[in-house]
Design goal:
The complex is a heterotrimer. Helix content of chain B is 79%, strand content 3%. Chain B is mainly alpha-helical. Helix content of chain C is 81%, strand content 0%. Chain C contains 15 helices and no strands. In chain C, α2 runs parallel beside α8 and α2 packs across α11. Chain C starts with a helix and ends in a 9-residue tail after the last helix. Classes of the chains: A alpha/beta, B mainly alpha, C mainly alpha.
Chain lengths: 242, 301, 310
């Protein structure tokens, strides 16, 4: 069953067109990496699908319905650098934010919400840091808090923007274990990923993007040398040297 | 109540409401928007006066909200058209403010409304402009308006506390779970506008910026908890109001200027001595953040 | 109006606001590309206590001393903003807002005391808040002219160095251009323009003279050189027009009229600008849509790869 269907999506950023005629479908229970060079529109694609960035045209449907009707079933993990980690709050509180949509207007989070958030922190191995101010966490720990926040949302479809960027090896393992567990329990995950070398080990599907879909499918079918070269063009050689 | 009592009460109300609103201003990186709105609100007041020919609370509040929102909208619009954010703020507020000043100079010619008063405030006159409030008797108009505004601010902040928190920290996530981020932004801008206009009589357009930003910034250096930061910021606002008043009486000078300066002193003390984020403690403990170390490792690998 | 134009003093005042507007327009471009437009606002407010202290110390309204006082206190403000930002979790905009308002508060405190103790003849000081070019005397005009010309010369002589410094500071360093020195000179000319401008337009609206012409010029060109020249023309033009209008009414403040003149120029640029104006963009969008209908792939394949922003 396809949980996400994108058809003919166009979008621009400032005056430049970043997404051109993007179409693809994602099956339930898949773990897809979105891969492409800088400026390929990876983050923009996530934002446009989530209606955080306007689209020019095209259709996105979630679970055969619109986003507004399925909002609680969709979870989003923004880039770690997109928030101010000096914000006066602690790890537990950040995880609780994942529940705010569910708590409802004019209500305060209660004990059961707190327990859920604690459990989710523990799942990411962060239970001991619940009271820690978020700026006192390492980059990897901050990313785990973000993951815990996504878990607590208990969504069916997750979008994650570079969760593995700049994290330590232990965090990378913890995050990948979590993603695989999500997949096992029938959830669908799409991850913007930057490390070409781990794509085959980590993900069962891949979406090669360079402003339009270059290739999409099972990793062994789509992640071929040819396709990667087509997505990255000349810049691949340059990247390998760097 | 005595004359001094009314002044201190009025100033404390300014300190409280500005202190509370200010916390979200600095966390949302909108400190300079506050500066902009505090100037443009003048245009709202003048326009309200020119239309109704009287200076009273509700008209001024409505005028302030309209110009405050207009400022926020224009800044946003120019920014979306490729003007840098702060240049866009600079263009909008100076223009609207200049229109306000010109209207006063050419149209108003009224003793009750002059630019100097609006810019610097005159809290010393506040206790004389009274109105009758049921049960309370005679209350200065400005004080009553400030109390009403404080009440509104408190109710709105507390009722939507978690929404303010999440939209300030992570607007992308907030939007993705269906919280109306844009609407809340404009509600917040309206709150800044009414707080500013209510504080006008007491401290004027520019010193209100000091009351809005500085106590909140000082509180930000003492705590890592949002709720405590709100309480501290309000308290710092009140302390500055009291200290400013007594210093002004002692030196026989402008009360509003002195209050603004007092917020600066409160900040300076926090900046130097705060055990958590002060300069002195950083110097003593050579405090280094763990993530900085890690980033270095990341960069190497 | 003709009468006032004929008066030699007015002519000098007009000349000085013209030159001042040009200098501010040029420096405004530097500030724009340093992304410090609002810094100029903070610094002009921060200058107030220095002006008052200089007056209190010398006891006369001597423009040169006041400029020194203003420069000292604006530079202290700039240094504090930098220090607060670099050694605490406070962000730059908060630091600017604090310095702006607290320094202004201190300035008002001092001003009240000075007005009370010195007694009479201080109306000139109030002009620092709103600006009153018409009240300037010949000597002030000469001082302003000289300083504004100095600023213009500094920008023109080292034009290509400024360009490098603003667009690619790392590359500039590679060429042996000391960014610390360039920064110091930049700060010095910025403060200089601000403190001489305060006399004409006042501390509150000084920022407009720096920001608005530069932003308007952006709508006409992509070249830095043309932007600086245009910005100088816009700034000078609005200085001239604003001052002229303010002489029409009794006690009309100069600053707001200069700002309005420059806002009108801005609006014209916004709508009709040849580079990013609303009109031209609307036309472009139209032709683009047409093109897309004819050949859907053409419009995006030509766009060079861009870096992904937010």
């Amino acid at each position: 069953m396809s949980v996400l269907k994108v058809q003919g999506l166009h979008a621009s950023y400032r005056k430049n067109k970043v997404l051109h005629d993007v179409s693809f479908e994602v099956e339930q229970g898949s773990l897809t990496s979105i891969v492409g060079p800088n400026g390929a529109g990876k983050s923009t694609l996530l934002k446009v699908m989530l209606e955080l960035h306007p689209k020019l045209s095209g259709d996105v449907s979630f679970f055969g319905s619109t986003l507004s009707q399925t909002k609680t079933r969709v979870g989003y993990v923004p880039q770690r650098g997109s928030v101010d980690w000096d914000f006066p709050t602690n790890a537990l509180d950040v995880v609780m934010m994942g529940l705010y949509g569910r708590v409802g207007w004019l209500k305060w989070p209660n004990k059961s919400h707190k327990e859920k958030a604690m459990a989710s922190l523990a799942q990411m191995g962060m239970a001991d840091f619940a009271d820690r101010q978020i700026s006192q966490l390492s980059g990897g720990q901050q990313q785990r808090v973000f993951l815990a926040r996504a878990l607590v949302q208990d969504a069916d479809l997750y979008f994650m923007d570079e969760p593995l960027a700049g994290v330590d090896a232990a965090t990378e393992r913890a995050i990948m274990t979590t993603l695989k567990n999500l997949k096992m329990s029938g959830k669908t995950v799409m991850v913007v990923h930057h490390d070409l070398q781990t794509v085959e080990d980590y993900f069962d599907h891949v979406l090669l993007l360079n402003r339009t879909v270059v290739a999409h499918g099972k990793t062994e079918d789509a992640f071929t040398k040819d396709n990667v070269y087509r997505a990255y063009g000349g810049s691949l050689r340059f990247m390998k040297e760097a | 109540m005595t004359y001094t009592g009314w002044i201190l009460l009025t100033a404390s109300l300014v300190g409280l409401s500005c202190g509370i609103v200010g916390v979200f201003l600095i966390l949302r990186r909108m400190a300079m928007m506050a500066d902009a709105i505090s100037h443009t609100v003048l245009l709202g007041i003048v326009t309200a006066f020119l239309i109704t020919r009287e200076l009273n609370g509700p008209h001024m509040l409505i005028g302030a909200i309209i110009t405050g929102l207009l400022t926020a909208l224009l800044v946003q619009w120019f920014h979306s058209r490729g003007v840098q954010q702060d240049a866009s703020i600079g263009v909008v507020f100076t223009t609207l403010f200049a229109i306000g000043v010109i209207l006063i100079a050419t149209q108003v010619g009224n003793a009750h409304l002059d630019t100097k008063h609006a810019l610097m405030g005159e809290i010393a006159f506040v206790p004389w402009e009274v109105m009758n409030v049921p049960l309370l008797g005679e209350v200065p108009k400005a004080t009553f308006m400030l109390a009403a505004v404080l009440l509104v601010v408190l109710v709105v902040i507390l009722a939507f506390y978690k929404e303010w928190k999440i939209t300030s920290f992570d607007p992308a996530l907030a939007a993705s779970i269906g919280i109306p981020v844009v609407l809340l932004h404009y509600v917040f801008m309206s709150m800044v506008s009414i707080t500013t206009v209510a504080s006008f009589d007491a401290v004027g357009a520019i010193m209100v910026v000091a009351m809005l930003i500085t106590p909140a910034a000082a509180a930000y250096l003492w705590t890592d908890k949002l709720s405590i930061m709100l309480v501290l910021s309000g308290a710092f606002g009140v302390i500055s109001a009291f200290a400013g008043y007594y210093v002004a009486v002692w030196l026989d000078t402008s009360i509003s200027g002195s209050m603004a300066f007092a917020t600066g002193i409160v900040f300076l003390v926090s900046f130097l001595l705060s055990p958590k984020h002060g300069v002195l403690s950083r110097y003593l403990y050579r405090y280094e953040r763990p993530d900085q170390e890690e980033q270095q490792i990341d960069a190497v690998s | 109006m003709l009468n006032s134009l004929l008066s030699p003093n007015t002519q000098w005042v007009l000349l000085s606001t013209l030159i001042l507007g040009m200098a501010a327009g040029m420096i405004g471009c530097l500030a724009y590309w340093k992304k410090q437009s609002l810094m100029s606002d903070a610094l002009s407010h921060a200058a107030l206590p220095g002006v008052v202290v200089a007056f209190a110390l010398t006891g006369t309204k001597n423009l040169l001393f006041m400029i020194i006082g203003a420069a000292v206190s604006a530079l202290i403000g700039a240094w504090l903003i930098g220090w607060i930002r670099s050694s605490s979790r406070i962000k730059e905009d908060t630091a600017m807002g604090m310095i702006l308002s607290v320094f202004f508060g201190l300035g008002i405190m001092l001003l009240t005391i000075v007005n009370r103790t010195a007694g009479g003849n201080q109306s000139g000081l109030d002009n620092f808040i709103f600006g009153q070019a018409a009240s300037m005397v010949r000597k002030d005009v000469f001082t302003m002219l000289a300083l504004a010309l100095l600023v213009i010369v500094i920008v023109t002589v080292a034009f290509k160095e400024w360009k490098l410094f603003l667009f690619d500071p790392d590359f500039a360093r590679g060429l042996g251009l000391s960014s610390r020195w360039m920064n110091a000179i930049y700060m010095a000319v910025l403060v200089l323009v601000i403190v001489i401008g305060i006399q004409a337009v006042g501390v509150i609206l000084m920022a407009a003279m720096l920001i608005i012409p530069a932003v308007s010029a952006r709508y006409w060109t992509q070249s830095f050189r043309t932007m600086v020249i245009l910005s100088a023309i816009f700034g000078g033009g609005s200085g001239l027009i604003g001052t002229l209008i303010s002489t029409l009414g009794k006690g009309w403040p100069t600053g707001p009229f200069i700002v309005i003149a420059s806002s009108v120029l801005f609006t014209v640029s916004l709508v009709f600008g040849s580079e990013k104006g609303l009109l031209i963009q609307a036309l472009q969008l139209r032709s683009e849509k047409k093109k897309q209908v004819e050949d859907p792939s053409s419009s995006w394949t030509k766009v060079p790869a861009i870096r992904e922003g937010e």
